[in-house]
Amino acid sequence: MRDQWQREINYLRVSVTDRCNLRCRYCMPEEGVVWKRHEEIMSYEEIAHLVTLFSGAGIRKVRLTGGEPLTRRDLPRLVAMLKEIEAIDDISLTTNGVLLPQLGRELKAAGLNRVNISLDTLRREKYRQLCGRDELPRVLAAIDEALNLELHPVKLNSVIIAGVNEDEIEDLAALTLDRPLHLRYIELMPMKRRGEKAGEGVTSGEIRRRLEEKYGPLIPAGPPHGQGPAKYFRLSGACGTVGFIEPISDHFCPSCNRLRLTADGRLRPCLVAEMEIDVLTPLRQGAREEEILALYHRALQVKPMSHGMNGKWDPGGRSMHQIGG
Ligand code: SAM
Ligand code: SF4
């Protein structure tokens, strides 16, 4: 199914919760977060129902995200339900990793194909400061577990902030040298925290310059799995890859293949644009399937060609953990 700009939309990112067991500075305001009430959040049955409908309109891949998806009780049950949907051929998860050592095996058994784990620093104290909890050892164990369970390709997401973790750009890349890990540097999106910014991002041009200074020329590499917004390279002799995701400076909008479904059941055609279409309320009010599908088509129709964000972004009402980054 194509949107009005002829982009094929086959990928749905589903947020299963707005809650989280970390407090990353760039994602969540420190105080004043109002969590959605339990009854506002889609049940697993509702998620599976919507995904089934949307799979009839071309969705083939589903990524579970949040907030922290592993904080939602019994996530393997949802994975198993999605696995049952015939047209869905790929189920992935974006997680901070904290609970993955304990849940990984069950998720794999339920049908999870692969994971992305967020990791911004390899230093325990810095992790505690940046992410708000002393959880680095469990996140490192999560990476080992993801490799053991062959949740390939195992991707790592790193947000680099000037003066905070930019001194670890090279050490993070070194993780890809002898294991099949795919580390992506994600450009910091200027999420505001109560009038204050979480910091300044470091451009991928600068990250690349530093990597080449230490490791020599980066070798262009294909994406480890299908398409996506990252551009990938290999350090000389490395087993894995490094990638760059630049939502702001390098508009990847022309190849965007995704829609988002927030935990409270709104279709969000673009991460950045504030527009949302409520599909949960009509579902709960007993709307016919054609009516829900009409809303899905509407989301495709209004999906913007480009976010037009030029280094400035105030996402309005929602923080990243509420949108499902
Ligand atoms: N809790 C899970 C996690 O951290 O992986 C999933 C949700 S989190 C919102 C998804 C991704 O968004 C993470 O990789 C995180 O680093 C990224 N993210 C959050 N806030 C961001 C920001 N302001 N700029 C860039 N990336 C951000
Ligand atoms: Fe939680 Fe993920 Fe946001 Fe960090 S980035 S606060 S782990 S939702």
Q: Can you describe what's shown?
A:
The chain is an alpha/beta fold and 325 residues long. It has a single domain (11-323), classed as Aldolase class I (TIM Barrel). It is built from ten helices and 14 strands. It has a twelve-stranded mixed sheet with strand order 9-10-11-6-5-4-3-2-1-12-13-14. The longest helix is centred in the C-terminal third of the chain and has 14 residues, at 289-302. The radius of gyration is 19 Å and the shape is globular. The two termini are 23 Å apart. The mean pLDDT is 90. Bound molecules: S-adenosylmethionine and iron/sulfur cluster. Residues 20, 26-27, 65-66, 68, 94-96, 118, 157, 159, 186, 188-189, 191, 320-321, 325 line the site of S-adenosylmethionine.
CATH class: Alpha Beta
Main sheet properties: 12 strands, mixed
Question: From the coordinates shown, what is the CATH architecture?
Answer: Alpha-Beta Barrel
Number of helices: 10
Task: Give descriptors for this structure.
10 helices, 325 residues, binds S-adenosylmethionine, two-stranded antiparallel ribbon, 12-stranded mixed beta sheet, 18% strand, TIM Barrel, binds iron/sulfur cluster, alpha/beta
Summarize the structure.
The protein has 325 residues and is an alpha/beta fold. The protein has helices spanning 44-55, 75-83, 100-110, 124-131, 136-148, 169-174, 204-215, 280-284, 289-302, 320-323; strands spanning 11-15, 61-65, 90-95, 114-118, 154-159, 181-186, 192-193, 196-197, 219-221, 231-234, 241-245, 258-261, 266-268, 277-278. The strands form 2 sheets. The protein has a 12-stranded mixed beta sheet.
